[in-house]
Please model this.
Amino acid sequence: MHPTPLTVPGLLAHSVREFGDRTYLVSPAERLTYREADRRSAVVARRLLAQGVGKGTRVGLFFPNGADWVTWWLAVSRVGAVAVPLSTLYRPAEIAKVVRLADIGLLVAPDRVLGIDVADRLEAAFPELPDQRAGRLALTSAPFLRQIVLIGDDGPGWAARHLDDDPGSVPAAVLAAAEDEVSAADLAIMVHTSGSTADPKGVLHTHGTLVRQTSTWPAAIRAITDSTDPVILCAMPFFWIGGVLAVTGALHEPVTLLVMPRLDAGTALDLAEAERATGIVGWPAFTQRIREHPSFADRDLSAAPMLREGPLDIAMTDVPEGFPIHRTMSETAGGFAYTEMRIVDEHGAPVPVGAVGELLVRGVGVMAGYNKKERGETFDADGWYHTGDRVFRRPGDPRLFYVGRTGELIKTAGANVSPLEVEAVIEGFDDVAQCVVVGVDHPERGEEVCAVVVPVGPALDVDSLARRTGEAVSSYKVPTRWTVVSSAQIPTLPSGKLDRKALRAWVIENSG
Model:
């Protein structure tokens, strides 16, 4: 029995050795076993090495979820380069910014992404491109970018082409030798996340952290889906940590991932029904869209009862207080298993079990740091990263329960109200499909608690809703403003995550 290695290439070899012929990924266009992922990524990795891409090279991946993303991510990881996934929804200015900030040396993409001509988009991002030569790029706006590879039949003169049968590759033995030099301490991936700054933050993880923190994902999936052979509809983009967690977690133990290039409820239902999905990982807004699809009632989803009967948010499984289990964090590579944690008050003192405080993390399960930020800008003198997340623990329960970000709490009449607590109560009513609670300025209370609700049927008795909410929570937590909407009116970020800021602005604009 081989011990699980602490690098991505070692983890891939483990998956091929232990369950190589199992299905790793299914998309509307193709299927990929673990063994095939190994073979395809080896072809790409050998060519990368021949072109001088190796330890430490920053490689941008501009792909939708699918087999190509997996193939190139694995290839980049196998040669010790740093994978930098780029959002497929980036506008030209965003592409230019992230390529520059991440010091990307090689950018790889298909010739079309979600119907968009990638060459046109890149020329809009980098106006200097039309005058450049393939493999010899020299851009003032991206000084480290030397090559762009477009996968397709033809392309502009500044783009190199990728060919599976390209003879310009190093021997297989050289790839094996390179993989042996990839260590747990080497940087593996840079995931960009929005924050309080104008520029996205590049979260850097080593191979060791990425492998450790994804190791518990298969067991969590089996527990949530009550399945020993999970087939998971993955509605998380691979360019953010939720998707990275899934695609890496499934290398530890066999979990089949059902993926889509774009989030489409009909496509998701087709995959879930045809492949006998046992569950879903994704944001609640997308699960709600699936349930509202015209064909939902007629689908055979018997292998995934959680799709019909479970909570919209899997983080709400077995949470008696109504607060969700803490979701993944980019800064801890999607898990907390190898992370030292403290929950502290505003003075930095530990709070007792059951009390709410800010979560601090450190240890081998925490990021190496933010790209282009010194350690002292990211961690305190004792090595703690201050997450800004407010959490608590129950006696005898190892899980963290998430109350909200410091800035999300509603301050009304001097009291703090957690939107998540009120949402959990309201979404528990049979006549409510979805609820989002936000705070808006109020001349007397400071902030007013506002509930935006999606009804199950055509009508909703708001007075009854307010009365029932008042029977479950303290009076100051009961919304004083109610807005009934369709799910399509609730704004989401490109990832599918709820956009509370936009919703709050919408509520204010439509307050009449």
The chain has a mean pLDDT of 90.
